[in-house]
Amino acid sequence: MSAKSCWAVFFALFCLTALGAACGDDDDPGSSPGQAQDDDDDNDDNDNDNDDNDTGDDDDNCVGEGSGYAIVPDHLECCAGLDSVGCDTVNEETGECTACDGFTYCTNCGDGICGPEENKCRCPADCDAGDDDDTTPESPDYPNDDLLRVNDLQGLGTHNSYHIEPPLLIWPDYNYTHKLLDEQAAIGVRQFELDLHWIPNQGLRVFHAPIIDPLSTCEVFTDCLAALKEWSDGHPGHHPILVFLEPKNDLNISDIAAHAEDVEADILSVWPRDRILTPDDVRGEYDTLREAILTAGWPTLGATRNKIIFHAHSLDEFLANYHALYPDLEGALMFTDSTPDDSYAGIMPLNDPIGDEAAIRDAVTQGFLVRTMAGDCCDEPEQNDYTRVEAALASGAHFISTDFPSPDNEYEYFVEIPAGNPSRCNPLTAPEFCTAADIENLPE
Q: Could you report the per-residue pLDDT of 269-290, keeping only the tens digit for each?
């Protein structure tokens, strides 16, 4: 754990133990899941609702479209007049629902809109109708799509892509606020990072740290996924999007390391399998992912447009459990942190473009994908220092992550891909004929 994380945890523990309700209690029903929510009155109300066999008329228990509740004994759902659906596992041959995920979700099935928490399994009429929407733009023509590969690009990413500056700024590094995920995609961001926490009776939530940095533009994990899916659906022809998922425990009561399958279930509830580039897709007929990349390379851009890549990052306990579920990532949805010598080597976070320069170049030239960082908030912006940005661009890293992807911030400091459209040809691996328009060329 870094010194910064230690101080953050120390401060949070101090708040919980010394300040009690003054630091942790929040009566706002819309507060972040990272904040303490011990409210005896609410618990009493819930007990009374169950005892009275509540039919869902109590507004305190009603929720909006897209909200989900665990199915537990004696817990009656209330979807504020909306439908409640729960099927998630679909037979790929017949397209029919075959299983439910243990949750029900409030939806508006039948409104003709494939809205939040809906998919072909849950709301087939709405979501099938969306496939024939004539308003969806056509994909641009890419004449070199069969010649260029995923690792021939260099694109822009964001760090803690959901982040909102906390109202009480106790750490200067938290002094930034990101646009919504789809708005980031609209300005050219193609790599995102989401911190995942498992909250009992709520599921997967996205925020940075309990109490001290709890705000998020998309608090519910599936809402984050849906925002990216909606943007992708409306912009056919984009090159693959990379999403780093960083499981965190912090002060959480429940250990997220045991919930890898829940992460995958949430992903598949929003993104269909054929829109996800997985380790198996890259491995093909080779014995290991590493062998496939060193021998055949990544799939072509033509085979991967409109797709998303998920990568599990950082938490050792989570990664160990995930590899126990999927040895060598066979059958896995997500890639994981690796080194060039690992049998499951594919994507590598090497976050210091100066200190890791040699390692980045080595990994890139071997064919592996690399994410690096162009700096953190807020030393570089305050000094208008682009040293790390220039090093990251020159390193050949495929995705360069920043807290400042646009100039509309108090520093007027931002990172962009030079001559990108919004991404560009990788300076180390792309062939000479490659142009930025070959990588991506979406209509204005």
A: 999 999 999 999 999 999 999 9
> Which range, of 326-340, 347-361, 397-411, averages the lowest pLDDT?
397-411
| CATH code reported for the domain at 153-439 | 3.20.20.190
Residues of the chain with CATH 3.20.20.190: 153-439
Q: What is the mean pLDDT of residues 338-360?
A: 98
pTM: 0.72
Return the HEC string of the chain. CCHHHHHHHHHHHHHHHHHCHHHHCCCCCCCCCCCCCCCHHHHHHHHHHHHCCCCCCCHHHCCCCCCEEECCCCCCCCCCCCEEEEEEEECCCCCCEEEEEEEEEEECCCCCCCCCCCCCCCCHHHHHHHHHCCCCCCCCCCCCCCCCEHHHEEEEEECCCCECCCCCCCCHHHCCCCCCHHHHHHCCEEEEEEEEEEECCCEEEECCECCCECCECCCEHHHHHHHHHHHHHHCCCCCCEEEEEEECCCCCCCCHHHHHHHHHHHHHHHCCHHHECCHHHHHCCCCCHHHHHHHCCCCEHHHHCCCEEEEECCCHHHHHHHHHHCHHHCCCCEEECCCCCCCCCCEEECCCCCCCHHHHHHHHHHCCEEEEECCCCCHHHHHCCCHHHHHHHHHCCCEEEECCCCCCCCCCCCCCCCCCCCCEECCCCCCCCCCHHHHCCCCC
Is pLDDT at 263 greater than 70 in this prediction?
A: yes
Give the per-residue pLDDT at 356. 97
Question: pLDDT per residue over 209-229, tens digit each?
Answer: 888 888 999 999 999 999 999
